[in-house]
């Protein structure tokens, strides 16, 4: 039959199991933390893109004096009084040019604007983006769509048609001639305010467990871990070690070593149950001392009576 575990061993087992469970819960939550962090980073990018697109839409068109090398696409042009030319870029062109320039310099977040009803081949949606557009159209309360894909995090936010958008996406007959000339009268027309025009698609590298751990390990984290270990050491010293000492002292007393000293705080000054247990053991020791003294006295008395006879 196996022996029962000692109190120190039981405490160590419980402490170890508790720490393992905490570590398991922590590791299980890392995945949710990874997604939460990536979602907020991607959401911030989408907010900025939508704000920029809204600004361009409210101005009608952004006019530039010079086309950046490699980005020669424009919707309309007008002659300047000094003989130069102004080039007009609508929200779609301005946003696409912004994404192409930003993505060249980006180290983490990549974004693009796309739709299932695109006008430019550079805006053709991939499978994730196409499914996201369909999801937003099926559920107008859906705020975002996300997915982990081949070590990356994909995020999509809907772009809703505003009143300013109807000029180029409402009735083709009301569209500017430059829009009809560039895109024709069939693509991306017939929208109403509030409908899903497309999405902002953001791609981020998925954060690894190591990156998440590095972000969580701070001086405060180390400090609190240190405090936890100190508290447990104090508990071991004040409870477990005292129980072990009491056990050994009780065994010594039971073996006849009545001179064994028990160090504790008087129960009248303490609510610690261990002090009460020490006190009870000490009372038992005193009772044994008194009992042995009486036995010795009786034995001495009998011996004297025997000698007198």
Please, could you describe this protein's structure?
With 309 residues, this protein is of the alpha+beta class. The protein folds into two domains: 7-207, no CATH class; 218-308, Helix Hairpins, CATH 1.10.287. Helix content is 55%, strand content 13%. The chain has eight helices and seven strands, in the order H-E-E-E-H-E-H-E-E-H-H-E-H-H-H. It has a four-stranded antiparallel β-sheet with strand order 4-7-6-5, sandwiched between helices. Strands 1-3-2 form a three-stranded antiparallel β-sheet. Strand 2 and strand 3 (85-89) form a beta hairpin. Helix 7 (219-254) packs parallel to helix 8 (273-308). The longest helix has 53 residues, at 7-59.
β-strand number: 7
Could you tell me how far the N terminus lies from the C terminus, measured between alpha carbons in angstroms? Answer: 57 Å
* Total tally of structural domains: 2
Helix content: 55-70%
Main beta sheet strand tally, sense and closure? 4 strands, antiparallel
Major sheet: arrangement of strands: 4-7-6-5
Radius of gyration: 40 Å
What's the number of helices? Answer: 8
**Stretches where pLDDT falls below 50 for ≥5 residues?**
none
What sequence of helices (H) and strands (E) makes up the elements? HEEEHEHEEHHEHHH
Strand content: 5-15%
Structural class: alpha+beta
* Average pLDDT level: 86
Shape: rod-shaped
